[in-house]
């Protein structure tokens, strides 16, 4: 699949997920049923709080390494268990660790292993982009524009400077972590309109960032 079509598909999938979650938030019956599951999960976590924290960070880390998993679905449970500030910190930490892991896989295990995880097409297409312009600001834009599992592998393969990568990773992931946490809170509170507005804004931001990277000279 061409890269631009793959990115468009990803944005459409995210938009549909947000739409479905917004529909659940707006429906009293569906929201109440989901809330019962969230409360049950929070109660299970409270029985082993340290294990719950470690598990949440690991799952957030996995979501930053593999394209088929998202830790965002667990954020409402985390907010109920630990509150917004702690959830934000843990989610951000997990994403940072996942980005570091993907960078190390690309750098030390090589292209073949990275290709097994995210596909050779994605690596080749974005590698060509980064070969031409590898300044810090472009790397930062690259981090904010594409799915989080891609930049670490590509920049690791290219042996990009790790410190610059880590700074760009930390800066780029923070606003997304904030948005996800607030979406989780709006979902818990049943604020369907605000949920849809914030979610739609996040999708539009992703589209804008991708367009900027794709058309940057």
Describe the structure in your own words.
This protein has 217 residues and is an all-alpha fold. It has one domain. The protein is built from eleven helices and no strands. The protein has helices at 3-26, 28-47, 49-65, 75-82, 84-109, 111-118, 120-132, 136-145, 149-157, 162-189, 192-215. α1 (3-26) runs antiparallel to α11, α4 crosses α10 (162-189) and α8 (136-145) crosses α11. The protein is globular, with a radius of gyration of 18 Å. The two termini are 24 Å apart. The mean pLDDT is 83.
The percentage helix is: over 70%
Number of helices: 11
Give the amount of beta strand, in percent. Answer: under 5%
As residue ranges, the low-confidence spans are none
* Biggest sheet descriptor: none
- Decide which structural class fits the backbone: mainly alpha
Termini gap: 24 Å
Strands, count: 0
């Amino acid at each position: 699949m061409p890269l631009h079509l793959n990115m468009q598909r990803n944005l459409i999938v995210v938009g549909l997920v947000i739409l479905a979650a917004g529909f659940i938030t707006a429906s009293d019956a569906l929201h109440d049923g989901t809330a019962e599951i969230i409360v049950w999960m929070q109660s299970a976590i409270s029985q082993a709080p340290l294990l719950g924290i470690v598990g949440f960070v690991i799952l957030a880390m996995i979501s930053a390494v593999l394209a088929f998993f998202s830790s965002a679905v667990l954020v409402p449970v985390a907010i109920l268990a630990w509150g917004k500030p702690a959830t934000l910190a843990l989610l951000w930490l997990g994403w940072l660790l996942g980005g570091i892991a993907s960078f190390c896989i690309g750098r030390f295990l090589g292209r073949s292993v990275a290709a097994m995880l995210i596909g050779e097409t994605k690596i080749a297409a974005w590698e060509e982009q980064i070969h031409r312009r590898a300044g810090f600001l472009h790397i930062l834009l690259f981090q904010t524009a594409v799915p989080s599992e891609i930049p670490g592998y590509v920049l690791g393969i290219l042996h990009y400077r790790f410190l610059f990568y880590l700074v760009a990773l930390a800066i780029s992931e923070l606003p997304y972590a904030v948005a996800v946490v607030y979406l989780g809170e709006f979902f818990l509170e049943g604020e369907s309109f605000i949920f849809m507005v914030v979610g739609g804004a996040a999708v539009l931001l992703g589209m804008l960032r991708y367009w900027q990277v794709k058309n940057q000279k």
